[in-house]
Amino acid sequence: xxxxxxxxxxxxxxxxxxxxxxxxxxxxxxxHEEFYTDQLLRIDPSQGDWAIxxxxxxxxxxxxxxxLKNQDGLYTVTVCGRDGVDQAxxxxxxxxxxxxxxxxxxxxxxxxxxxxxxxxxxxxxGGYNIDKETGNFDLNNEAVRKDIANPSAPETVFGFVAEGLxxxxxxxxxxxxxxxxxxxxxxxxxxxxxxxxxxxxxxxxLAKWAEENVTFPNSMVDRITPATRPEDVERLNIKNGTEDKxxxxxxxxxxxxxxDNFANGRPKWEEVGVExxxxxxPYENMKLSLLNASHSLxxxxxxxxxxxxxxxxxxxERIRKFVKDFxxxxxxxxxxxxxxxxxDEYKQTLIERFSNxxxxxxxxxxxxxxxxxxPVYLIPNVTKMVKEGKDLTRVAYLFAAYYDYLKYHTDDKGxxxxxxxxxxxxxxxxxxASDNPLDFLDIxxxxxxxxxxxKAFTDLYLKFVKEIREKxxxxxxxxxx
Length: 481
Hints:
By secondary structure, this protein is of the alpha/beta class. The protein has helices spanning 27-31, 33-43, 62-70, 104-112, 142-149, 157-171, 187-202, 204-213, 230-240, 281-304, 310-314, 317-331, 343-354, 363-367, 370-387, 393-408, 426-433, 455-471, 473-478; strands spanning 6-7, 18-23, 51-56, 75-80, 86-91, 94-99, 118-121, 176-180, 214-215, 219-222, 248-251, 255-259, 275-277. The protein has a six-stranded parallel beta sheet with strand order 6-3-2-7-8-9, with helices on both faces. The protein has a four-stranded mixed beta sheet with strand order 1-5-4-11, sandwiched between helices. A hairpin with a 5-residue loop joins strand 4 and strand 5 (86-91). Helix 7 (187-202) runs antiparallel to helix 8 and helix 10 (281-304) packs across helix 15. It is globular. The chain starts with 5 loop residues before the first strand and ends with a helix.
């Protein structure tokens, strides 16, 4: 790689070792935990024991694994400034990568390695296998049942961690922290429920050990990181004077708030801006309720209207007002400001972030996996709004737009599109196939919100379903702003 245009690694990677095994080496992880860790290694030589080994579990990880392996774990992150000034960094904190499809034993060995003090993960909101209706870990999941029955040949993240911890116990390697970096409220509690449920079902002795020797800190993560498409790879390499086959680009805003509950030490991430606290919940609530919920809110109307870039959608004053009203009127009453946060400033920053043309995030990325996002980002506050008799206009319009997006696969301009919903199942498909749009409100993703029982909600929802089909998403939106 040419070094002139990027901030190259300026520490000796040979003097580092992996204290962290991270499962799920996607773009977000590489622009967030890896970025923070790289920044720490640059300024504090005493932190050399906290480099990261990346574990990839899925067959679809093959291409990225091969690229990162060939690049010795090095890649670039281009931080896109809201002021139009970008800065690229060569990231050196990724010490090694392992692909479980070819070397499953290496993943297990790394979990058991005494040097490994933290197992972190980004496995998506849906990856924790929590049943949306019961709130419990789904022990009937086929892959989970297979791993419970075959401990020595794991395929799921739960099976790999369990087998690694058994070897860790046998080797006397000590305590470990499981740190989730996924967008879930109380994400550490969710991870604890998932892993402990699996351990108890597969190996009660392991569960007993884990109760005493494994911690699951809650954390709140934030940095908009678009998918990198082939044209982005070419664009970034030309821009940075590099030959990186796995570059990442992201916004200039970054935040990580972590519960300081580590079983066996941790990096001094606070030296590079990570906030440690004894209560992450208010930060999680703020971010999920305002940023993530607003992303979902703007995504489906924008996509149906023909927008494919978030910043372009945000230039449309109708969408901008829709998002601002949702934040200010609907959601702010349910978001106590954490710490010294100025909520008005935070919301204004969100609008600026969404409008960042250097990042130019894809609307399709925000639409992706709504069935996992709605229960986490929207349903908790929508449930309160329904119970308290609040104005449901904007949220009813959102649910109608999501219904149209999933059912018809066609935008206002007649363009046909594919829907990416990894958790789509027969229940949702049946609801979408029904002639009654109200059946959609009964899907598991919306459970507990009481939507179908609220006449105020259903009247608005049915009205918007009809109008979006007849007049289009944007024409319908104009009637409510």
